[in-house]
């Protein structure tokens, strides 16, 4: 059996593994916040996470999710994913796009929090505050590893808007994809094939 034939045999296995499995995809194109299966925990009902369709506040498609600010009231608005099972993967990665300002993060911030029981959450990321920032708003992609939660069959991710008189924040194109999925067994089989 030629080595090239063996390469053709094993490449599809590697290709599938490298890109990982989609565990959660949410682009808000359903036009509803919270999307099906998600949870919205509201503090200020008139200014909480909602659907947005103005193009500048949408990263892709027609809709995003946004939280409006209101002066004089502490907003603690929580948008929480459905429960996710990542126990069959070596790890997983969260990716999302956010629109906001590092300067206004001093007044209101977006926190990403992770839980394995739906009650106790760890803060894993927040918009980095930049006191000398211009306050200009841009779309930025953020990638976070869920490696600390590998093995869990009950992972929740919370997007928490917390502040007082801060600034609007929008999110779009959220994905959780399995990672580090180049299976060592596949590499081992490939190495063995080439050494024959
Ligand atoms: Ca969208």
Please write out the topology.
Elements: H1 3-19, E1 22-26, E2 39-41, E3 49-52, E4 64-67, E5 74-80, E6 91-100, E7 108-115, E8 121-126, E9 138-145, E10 156-164, E11 169-179, H2 184-195
Antiparallel strand pairs: 1-11, 2-5, 3-4, 4-11, 5-10, 6-9, 6-11, 7-8, 7-10
The site of calcium ion (CA) has 10 residues, from loops.
Task: Please describe what this structure looks like.
The chain has 196 residues and is mainly beta. It has a single domain, classed as Sandwich (Jelly Rolls). It has 2 helices and 11 strands. The longest helix has 17 residues, at 3-19. The radius of gyration is 20 Å and the shape is globular. Mean pLDDT is 87; it is low at 12-17 and 183-196. Residues 27-29, 58-61, 63-64, 172 line the site of calcium ion (CA).
With helices defined by DSSP (H or I, 4 residues minimum), what is the helix count? Answer: 2
Strand content: 35-45%
Q: Averaged pLDDT, please?
A: 87
User: Which blocks of ≥5 consecutive residues have pLDDT under 50?
Assistant: 12-17, 183-196
**In sequence order, what are the helices and strands, one letter per element?**
HEEEEEEEEEEEH
Largest beta-sheet details: 6 strands, antiparallel
Distance between the termini: 9 Å
Report the top-level CATH class.
Answer: Mainly Beta
Helix content: 10-25%
Radius of gyration: 20 Å
Bound molecules: calcium ion
Beta strands, count: 11
